[in-house]
Amino acid sequence: xxxxKGAGGSAALxxxxxxxxxxxxxxxxxxxxxxxxxxxxxxxxxxxxxxxLDILIGHAGLVxxxxxxxxxxxxxxxxxxxxxxxxDGMAILALVVLASAAFAAVxxxxxxxxxxxxxxxxxxxxxxxxxFAFGALAQYGGDDGMTLWExxxxxxxxxxxxxxxxxxxxxxxxxxxxxxxxxxxxxxFGRVLRAAKEAPVRVACMGFSVFRFRLVAYVVAGVIxxxxxxxxxxxxxxxxxxxxxxxxxxxxxxxxxxxxxxxxNGPLLGALVFLGVEVTLSHLLEAWRLVFGPLLILVxxxxxxxxxxxxxxxxxxxxxxxxxxx
Amino acid sequence: MSAVLEISGLAKRFGSLxxxxxxxxxxxxxxxxxxxxxxxxGKTTLMQQVSGLLAPDAGTIRLDGRDITEASVAERAxxxxxxxxxxxxxxxxxxxxxxxxxxxxxxxxxxxxFFSAAAEDEALNxxxxxxxxxxxxxxxxxxxxxxxxxxxxxxLELAMALVGEPHALLLDEPMAGLGRAESLAxxxxxxxxxxxxxxxxxxxxMEAVFALADRVSVLVYGRVLASGxxxxxxxxxxxxxxxxxxxxx
Lengths: 326, 249
Prior knowledge:
By secondary structure, chain A is an all-alpha fold. Chain A contains 14 helices and 2 strands.
C-alpha cells in the first residue's frame, strides 16, 4: 500500500530544501546581503501560509479564496499589539492564535455550509470584509497601514528582530509546519479529510461528521496562516491591508497549484519558486505576469501534481535508468 | 422478539407528490426483509429516510429501541446502522485495505488524531483485513479501489459496512450491474451474513430476493401494498400485478 507517496511525497526533497534555506545567511555574506535574507524570509513566510492553505485545497478539496485574510489578521493583531505597547512576543503570538482561530471558527462554520463555487465566493467575501475593516482602522494607518517602530522580544532576546534571529525563527516555524502538515496528511484525521474530498456522503454514512472534520481543518489552516502573518509583521516591520488583499489569496492558490496540490513538498516548493520567478521577472519586465501566466499554464497542463509531482516523476525515471545500467 | 429496526408511520411528500405514505416496517434479528416494487415506488427515498439523507415529514425510526428519527447520517452510522449504496461509492484513490480501515476508524476511538500515521495503525489494519478476509477479498487488499472489478467493489462496500459491526444493514440494490455468476456468489455471501446482521434489502433481482428474503414487502406509490413471507407475497394477486406487471385476473 502506498501510504507515503500520493499524500506524502518524498520527505528527502523537503529536507533538502530546508537545509538549502539554512545556508542562505551564509551565502548572503558573499552575495546578496540583507536583501537576499529578507527576500528568502518573505518566501518562507509565504510558504508557511501556502502549506496551511494546501490542507484545505489539497487534502480537503476546499478552495478557499480568502486565505490571505488570515495572514493579514495575524499581521494586524501583531501590529496593533506592538503599537499599544505589548512587546512580549509569546503574548502577541497567543493573541494571534486566538484571533485567527476565532475568525476561522466563525467564518468556517458559515462557509462550510456551502461547497464548490459558493465556498470560493463566500471565503472571498469574508476575506474582503477583513481587508476593508483593516483599511478603516484610521488610528492604525487606514489604507496606508502602519510602520512598526519597534518589534517584540522573545523571552527578552532579539530573536524576533529582522537584524537578529528572525531568520532562524522563520525557518524553524517553516520546518515545524512542514513536518506537522506532512504528518497530518497521513494521520487518521487526514485520511478522513481526503476521503471526504472524494465522497462526502459515503464518508458520512460511515459515521463521520464531515462538517466537523472540515471545520477543524479550516481552523488549523487559519491559525497557521495567522502565525505567518505574525512573522510577516516582524519581517517587514510594517503592516498594511495589502497583506489581506484578495490578490494575495490568489497568489497563495497559485503557489499551491504550481507546487502541487496535496503533495508533501508542493506548497513549499511553489512558494519559493513563485517568489523567485516574481523577483527575477519583475526586474526584467514590468508586465512580468504576462510571462508567469503561461508558465503556470504549462506546469498545470504538463506536470500533474505540479512541480513536486514533476520532480518525483523525474527522480523515479532517473532511478530506474540507473538501476537498468547497474 | 424485539425488532432491531422499527419504522412506524413514516410519511414524506415533495409538494403534492406523495413518495412515502404511512409506511411501517420492522427488521427482526437474523432476518432479511426485502423491499420490492416498480420503479418510482419510493424504495430509494424510503432508504434515504432510514439512513438519514432525507428527513421524513412524519413517523419515527427506531434502532435497537432508540428513536433515531432526528439523528444525522453520521450519528445513525455510529449507532449501528450500516449502509451499502446503490452506486458503489468506495474511495477510488485509496487501496481496498485503506477503504475498510477508514470505515473501521469511525467505530474505533476518535479520528481527531493528527500525528501518528494511520496506515501504520496495526489494530486498525487487522480489523480491516479481517473484514476483507470474510468476503474473500484479502488478496486484493493492496489494490487501488478504483482498479477493482465491479463485483469486487461491491464486496469492498460490504466489507466497509461490516467492519463497523452494524446492528442492521441497509442494502440498496447490491446486485445491480453484477453478472449472473457474481450475483449468485453475492447471494450466497448475504445468506450467510444475515444470520449475524439483519438485512433490509432493496433489490430488483427477484431471484436474489426470493432466495434471501424471510419477509417481503411490496411498495407501490409510497405505500406498503403487501407484506409477509415470500410465498404468500408471491401468491398475492395485487402484489403480482404491482411488481411483475401482471394484470389482476
